[in-house]
Amino acid sequence: MKSMLMIAALVASVSSVARAEEEDPFADAVEMRHGLMLQMATDLGKVGAMAKGEAPYDQAVAARAAANIAAIASVLSMDQFPAGSEYQASADSYALPAIWTAQDDFLVKIADLNTAAAGFQTAAATDVDALKAGMGALGGACSACHKAYRQPEE
Amino acid sequence: MKSMLMIAALVASVSSVARAEEEDPFADAVEMRHGLMLQMATDLGKVGAMAKGEAPYDQAVAARAAANIAAIASVLSMDQFPAGSEYQASADSYALPAIWTAQDDFLVKIADLNTAAAGFQTAAATDVDALKAGMGALGGACSACHKAYRQPEE
Q1: Which long-range contacts (CB under 8 A, 24 or more apart) does A135-141 make?
Q2: Which CATH number does A24-78+86-149 carry?
Q3: Can you give the residue ranges of every domain in chain A?
Q4: Is B17 within 8 Å of chain A by CB?
Q5: What pLDDT, in 10s, does the model give residues A90-135?
Q6: CA A75 to centroid of chain Cα atoms
Q7: Which of A26, A34, A57, A123 could form a disulfide with A130 if both were Cys (CB 3.0 to 4.6 A apart)?
Q8: Which residues of B touch A140 (CB under 8 A)?
Q9: pLDDT exceeds 60 at position B101
């Protein structure tokens, strides 16, 4: 029972931080998905720098970044995209309505990202040439989903 | 080369969403860690509801939530906590300065969370009694870190 109360308090305290900021019912969902995408961008930035020769290839760093990308991909689902949290209906949202009208395809895009991220884990841990070669499929999975389901920024 | 440019554009576009909101240099890091914690709270909420009998035990849902918790735990590192992004120095930050002055212990707390999350994956996939029993260690790892390193909300 003690642990139940503790968990409930933890969940409430984390959620209320975002909620207090504004009365947008989707503020938490939008911050959640932005946080996940920012984590992915951080890790993509690390392996991208190695691929471009701006940073030396470091197997441990590359493998960890690739593992992080796969971990974040693995949690993506409709949970981060509650109906109604689309562009212009929710603050800071760039999610296009097609996410919900073409939900099956959206979930296929998420599955494709998971496949690409799994392959990239092997590539990133091999050497810099494999890492470079592996980034195409990974970047392709990112942009396939963004192109169909993310409002371009102005 | 094409994929390099694509990755660079993706990284820039994701990051700029948060950055455009305010000129806080830690806005991205804070949104990143809040997003990760919100994801963890969402999954803890699902298994917590099952543990409290507010939702029926569903093995697939519980296993997925536990896998998500482990995935999020696995990406935690100092990457989400750049020096300077502490409470009152960065907007919306609840991170206490002890994170950086006692960094070794902070990283031990993250490792402890990963251990607890791994154990919880087995428990959550077993049955509701194992799930309930397993929440203590998981909640304990959450609060040990929050107690030492997170500013309580007013």
Answers
A1: A135/A47, A135/A48, A135/A51, A135/B3, A135/B4, A135/B7, A136/B2, A136/B3, A138/A44, A138/A69, A138/B7, A139/B3, A139/B6, A139/B7, A139/B10, A140/A116, A140/B3, A140/B6, A141/A109, A141/A112, A141/A113, A141/A115, A141/A116, A141/A117
A2: 1.20.120.10
A3: 24-78+86-149
A4: yes
A5: 878 999 999 999 999 999 999 999 999 999 999 999 999 999 999 9
A6: 8
A7: A123
A8: 3, 6
A9: yes
Any chain A CB within 8 A of the CB of B136? yes
Mean pLDDT on B128-146: 97
Determine the distance in angstroms separating the CA of B140 from the nearest CA of chain A, rounded to an integer. 8
Long-range pairs of B119-124 with CB within 8 A, sequence gap ≥ 24: B120/B66, B120/B69, B120/B70, B121/B63, B121/B66, B121/B67, B121/B70, B123/B66, B124/B47, B124/B62, B124/B63, B124/B65, B124/B66
**Could you give the CA distance from residue B81 to residue B30 in angstroms, rounded to a whole number?**
8
What is the pTM assigned to this prediction?
0.90
User: Mean pLDDT lowest for which of A15-19, A107-111, A146-150, B88-92?
Assistant: A15-19
**CA-only gyration radius of chain B, Å:** 18
Q: Is B130 on the interface with A (CB under 8 A)?
A: no
Question: For domain B26-77+94-149, is the CATH number 1.10.8.50?
Answer: no
